[in-house]
Amino acid sequence: MAFKVLTGNFSHETNTFNIVPTTLAHFRVLNANEIPGARRGTRTDLGATFEAADKYGWSLIHPVAAGANPSGIITRETYEDLAGRLLEGAEGIDGALLHLHGAMVAEGIEDGEGELLRRLRAIVGPDVPVIVTLDLHGNITQAMADNANALLAVRTYPHIDHYEQAWRGADLLERAMRGEIRPVTVIAKRPMLKGLDGGRTQAGPMRELIDRGIALEEAGKALVVSVCSGFTAADIRDIGPSVTVTTDGADPAGQAIAEEFMDYAWATREFTSVRHHTLAEACAYAKAGEGKHDRPLVMADVTDNPGSGHYGDATNFLRAMIAADLQNAAFYAMFDPEAVQQGIAIGVGNSGTITLGGKHDAGAGGAPLVLTGRVVTLSDGKLRAFGPMGGGVWRNLGPSMLFRVGGIEIMAITLNSQATDLAQLTSLGCDPTRKDSIAVKSNHHFRAAFTPIAREIITVNGGGLGDKILTGGTYLNARRPIWPLDDLTRT
Ligand SMILES: [Zn+2]
Questions:
Q1: How far is the C-alpha of 412 from the C-alpha of 337, rounded, in Å?
Q2: What pairs with residue 383 in β-bridges?
Q3: How far away, in angstroms, is 386 Cα from ligand 1 center?
Q4: How far is the CA of 305 from the centre of ligand 1 (A)?
Q5: What is the pLDDT of residue 472?
Q6: From ligand 1's centre to the CA of 280, what distance in Å?
Q7: For 131-157, what is each residue's pLDDT tens digit?
Q8: pTM for this one?
């Protein structure tokens, strides 16, 4: 008889410092009928799950797939709605393979995934295997480890291995449902708010621990070793890096591995692999390179990254670019539905004046810009990603515009999103490969698509919400004492 397997997405990285609540309207929700058409054949977690179900002959139940751009705390009503839809499919299953994030916060629920898994466990009982894939930016909790049999975090940042981790999870689930293995997961943490270089997997402590974990898996010492750097923009008790280890049956060796790995994370907590440029430095550098290269300089404002739940409408960087009179430059993007509507009213090919950006919190990245320029392109914002992150998936950024001011092609969008795919620019008629310089709002994910076309990449501090959190963030709920808020030098 075919195993009955529950799958689905309920994914959100919640920035508790973002003052705008996240509601159902912010989520892209696919129901059971829509999921196969949207996800089969894609390099996504659900794409892999459908392939695994075909291979193993599972009867797959997929009541809902829901994901939103990182943003503020999810309203309780929205959480209950989406969690309820997912758990409706849990009665009588043989196993579950869920694709979550790990840093979800809802009103009154600091640990969104832990609570979801607790509810699932209450329905299915202790013996049904529950396997979960996660983002490496999850703030992983004891409740997640206790209520899932295995937690598999992605191992790349930019995250381009959701598909592979879902396949690994599927293989584990099949073996667990057959009774060949009984996966048990333990967790270790340290009093750290941040560390593991923010999850960067190119070099440094994150790379080191991921490689050590893979070696242990290959040597048969553990079924899974997952390393998560945590998400600093979440003011919750369980913030911070973690290591979870899954063994076949309860095994003290699992906890020992997790503790040893976290000792290393603690020892390397100060390590950083990036230095952010000031706006003046970045613009001067871009100006000096104009006309001298055949590939663009890519400049990322890490402090207004929609991918971390920042507002996406900070104006400081664009203001500096205009003041520097950059030529053959691109700016992606300003999240500003009203400005796009102003552009629509002006009309393609016409010149006019718009008020752009700075509308959420002028104290986090600058006041609105009043700009006169030309509306070059308008689109409905629907595009098919073709890059390494989610290639093949249709995305919708809502009504979008390319507005040209001097030598800068400024793109504005209606649904907030960071720059992760070149199609976001090309769909508006901007050819990024031919620019002298390109500004993006992104912390690190942009690299997957932009590294191959860039002559050089620099990161920039544009004074957005991310900068406010890092320099003056008030953590009221984090467990104390915790580094770097408290002096832990003697521990
Ligand atoms: Zn992430």
A1: 8
A2: 395
A3: 19
A4: 12
A5: 67
A6: 29
A7: 999 999 999 999 999 999 999 999 999
A8: 0.89
